[in-house]
Amino acid sequence: MTTTRLSATQLTAPGLVNLPTPPTGWPIGSYATYAEAQRAVDYLADHDFPVQDLTIVGVEPMVVERVAARLTWPRVLGGGAASGAWFGLFVGLLLGLFSPGPTLAPILIGLLTGVAFGASFAAASYASLRGQRDFVSTTQIVAGRYDVLCEPRHAEKGRDLLAELALASPSSA
Questions:
Q1: Up-side HSE of residue 122: CA atoms within 13 Å toward CB?
Q2: Contacts (Cβ under 8 Å, ≥6 apart) of 18
Q3: 86 with 51, same domain?
Q4: How far apart are CA 142 and CA 151, in angstroms?
Q5: What is the helix (H) or strand (E) element at residue 26, kind and residue range?
Q6: Which of 19, 42, 107, 109 suits 148 as a labelling partner, its CA being 20 to 30 A distant?
Q7: Are 36 and 146 in contact (CB under 8 A)?
Q8: How far apart are CA 34 and CA 41, in angstroms?
Q9: Alpha-carbon distance 170 to 172, whole Å?
Q10: Per the UniProt record, which residue ranges are transmembrane (predicted)?
Q11: Does the residue 3 lie in any domain?
Q12: pTM higher than 0.70 for the full model?
């Protein structure tokens, strides 16, 4: 069995799948937040650095779930009714466009039907959880740190420029 290594240009050539590849380059800076890493790359760009040789890599990824609110029956039913109302309004408007005569009746029927179905589906979904998830949350993937990598041909120059940035503003770099 023969294995063939594809170059980066072959992986992104038309007709071929863009396969995920690990980043390459030497680390020239490490930052606690993405905003700091982005600021470093922006600083390099402002100093005519070839930014196409840079990569920001999030290291030590973690999933962060931020709890936004407690779920209650009124919140569930209200959210379901609101979602259903938008969908019902859309369907009602479409029916109103293609129905002869007054267009208010299909819009109202679509709206009321959407509210009823939206609230019903939301209630069924919430009841099926049986109190095991009584909260609303958002989930993000964040990194423990962000490294700026640079291709070896410009790594030394990049490190020097980022050192200048760190000296110019020690409290924010």
A1: 21
A2: 11, 12
A3: no
A4: 24
A5: strand 26-31
A6: 19
A7: yes
A8: 11
A9: 6
A10: 76-98, 104-127
A11: no
A12: no
